[in-house]
Amino acid sequence: MKDAFGLPQSLLVLGGTSEIALATARRLIARRTRTVWLAGRSSPALEEAAEGLRRLGADVRTADFDALDPDSHESALGKVFAEGDIDLVLLAFGILGDQAEDERTPARAVRVAQTNYTGAVSAGLVAAGALQAQGHGSLVVLSSVAGERARRADFIYGSSKAGLDAFAQGLGDALHGTGVHVMVVRPGSVERPQTPFATTPEAIATAIELGLRRRAETVWVPGVLRVVMAALRHTPRALFRRLPA
Amino acid sequence: MSGDTVSVIRPRTHEEAAVAVRACGARGVVARGGPDRALGDAARNAGGAVLDMTGLDRVHVVDAAEGIVLCDAGLGLHRLAELLLPLGWSVPAFPAARHVTVGGAIGADLHGCAPDAAGSFSRHVVALELLTADGEVRAVRPDSELFGATAGGLGLTGVILTATVRLLPVETAYLTVGTERAADLDDLLARLAAPGTGRPHGYAAARIDLTARGAATGRAVLTRAGHAPRAALRGAVPRARRRPLSPRALQLLPPVGPLGSLVPAGIRYLAAPRAHPGRLRHLSVFRHPLDTVSLGGRCYGRLGRVRYQFAVGHGQEEALHRIVRRVADRRCPSARAVLQRLGAAGPGWLSCAVPGWSLALDLPVALPGLAAFLDGLDEEVAAAGGRVGLARDCRLRPDLLTAMYPRATDFRALRARLDPRGVFISDLARRLAL
Ligand SMILES: Cc1cc2nc3c(=O)[nH]c(=O)nc-3n(C[C@H](O)[C@H](O)[C@H](O)COP(=O)(O)OP(=O)(O)OC[C@H]3O[C@@H](n4cnc5c(N)ncnc54)[C@H](O)[C@@H]3O)c2cc1C
Ligand SMILES: NC(=O)c1ccc[n+]([C@@H]2O[C@H](COP(=O)([O-])OP(=O)(O)OC[C@H]3O[C@@H](n4cnc5c(N)ncnc54)[C@H](OP(=O)(O)O)[C@@H]3O)[C@@H](O)[C@H]2O)c1
Description:
Chain A is an alpha/beta fold. Helix content of chain A is 49%, strand content 16%. Chain B has helices spanning 14-22, 77-84, 102-107, 115-118, 145-150, 185-193, 238-242, 265-271, 289-295, 317-329, 370-383, 401-404, 408-418, 427-432; strands spanning 7-9, 29-32, 49-52, 59-63, 68-72, 89-90, 125-131, 137-140, 159-166, 168-169, 174-182, 202-208, 220-227, 275-282, 305-313, 336-342, 356-364, 387-388. In chain B, the strands form 4 sheets. In chain B, strands 14-11-13-12-16-17-15-18 form an 8-stranded antiparallel sheet, with helices on both faces. A 5-stranded antiparallel sheet of chain B has the order 4-5-9-7-8. A 3-stranded parallel sheet of chain B has the order 1-3-2, covered by helices on one side. The two termini of chain B are 19 Å apart. Classes of the chains: A alpha/beta, B alpha+beta. Chain A binds chain B through residues 1-5, 7, 9, 31-32, 85, 132-136, 177-179, 213-215, and chain B through 1, 3-6, 27, 41, 46-48, 303, 306, 365-366, 370-371, 394-395, 397-398, 427-428, 430-431. Residues 30-34, 37, 42-43, 53, 73, 96-97, 100-101, 103-105, 107-108, 110-111, 113, 154-155, 159-160, 290-291, 294-295, 391-392 of chain B line the site of flavin-adenine dinucleotide.
């Protein structure tokens, strides 16, 4: 059960090795979180991530989950929810792809779309259904600033995130008033710290904690991106094309 | 928390309540005394069912000679008082929290503000009927284990259907209300502990001025009130003399008084008379300091506020000092604090009433770092052997529960025996694994 500050006691991470998700889990364990489920494709990295969180005192379990296999989502997440209420589901899986390579090999581009968008649609709906049945909880969706406006440099990834973002917003509206809260998080880049508006997993974790307390619907990290992207969204195409990547 | 999906059922008879309990789904049921006042999560049940008890509000038997009433649990204390006053009886723990229902007063073991004489509400309960998980109705007597678990048990042992309550005799429907200023916390504690404060059903509560720091930390306006004896009405308004027990409607006071609760504590302190011996107020217009604290909720922003209430025993004044100082040092203009002295311990296993001091704080949720700050206060309270009250709680650190409530283990064991399927469950029970 979340407390008055929106701090969850149990957490389910979809994409259990995600750096951002693990930073968030560490932050929440320092607060109220005692139970953590890391769902992902089973790998030594997943076990290692679980072990790392256990050292912080949480009860951590792993679950098999593959975004590319939507047919399995119902049973995979069903097993987790059968063990007890989940206060927070963090939808963190996603792949960046390689724009140049993906343009040459459409099948690879489709994998990006299937992971980031269709996989998330399926997992998001399953999670939302389970949360609605328990009558409370938050679904936090890691979107990206790249989804706000497609750019030459990463429009395959960007378009998949745009789809995810629109889906999550609609889902949030659909669940409004049911006690389930959906929060869309749009971080800048973690990978390239030298770019403007770069961020860190820890900063994203802080923003998520604050967003939970405020029951925010959209969170930008860093926060100034909200204004920057509002301007960029209205920049004429001819000019937008010429902006540095 | 707010807006969780629940189905609210409002039973009109005991049978309807029993049917609702038997038919509740996998996410269980909990009783609720009235409208959701959204401070704590004890009367909430996300995804499950809530029994709104206000439909069960009949008075069954009044023994006007002995001062005993048998009534339904959904009856509001103000309604009960209205009915009994003309007969010369008053309700325990009244007039603080007048909107509270009889069931809610037992479920939260309402500690009145009448220190030594009266104690918490459950001490005045002679018997109650409890609808348990198996759909049976049990008669529960104060000497039983089930009573200990039910008083202050937050609705987790079952649904209280009726209660037999011992009343307090009064001669008039008037209170003598006096106010005085206390220059700092020590002065305040001394005044609250002074003999006379504890005379039969006298109330004393102080609104602390949290804007005062340094030597003045803890300065407060203390309100004392006691039921006026008949003799006190001499020379008062003629109407009062003619009908000393006139009932008048004791309905709820308006949510925010004309200005009342919005006046900052600093100004309130300076505006209060240094000492006011007391004047007569009819019960219907007496406003308890706690009422003004809780009901002036509009200045806390969209996220609202948290109620933090705790009790520490006598001899733990040092801890009380530290906590008041810490809160004052946070410099939160909209914070409010009310201090009361508690009398005898409540009979409930999870009752917060211990002989000592009770401090109720209201703080805005949006205050940065408040979650961690209150966690710190939890530790301070636990170290002092105190308890954080559960009735309005929405954030207590679960690992400190057994330290504060040694009988929590017994409570869990009794629940496992009485309610193996976990029919009675609330958000609070989930959060604190009760
Ligand atoms: C303005 C104000 C002043 C207050 N002053 C004081 C004070 O001076 N001293 C003090 O101790 N507290 C005080 N409180 C807190 C008070 O004790 C609780 O708010 C009170 O218990 C609420 O009663 P309710 O009828 O609204 O019940 P609820 O808040 O609905 O329920 C309280 C608990 O009792 C349970 N319950 C309710 N009815 C039943 C039933 N029929 N059977 C079984 N369980 C039931 C609920 O499940 C819940 O756990 C105050 C609160 C407010 C808002
Ligand atoms: N990093 C950034 O700069 C940035 C910026 C904005 C938004 N985001 C978004 O934030 C999220 C997390 O980012 P991150 O940097 O923490 O990512 P990360 O460390 O690269 O982790 C990505 C996670 O997704 C999982 N995953 C990929 N494909 C999967 C599949 N088919 N099934 C199940 N899980 C799969 C990975 O699991 P495996 O270990 O099994 O591969 C890994 O756990 C992503 O959605 C990302 O798009 C990131």
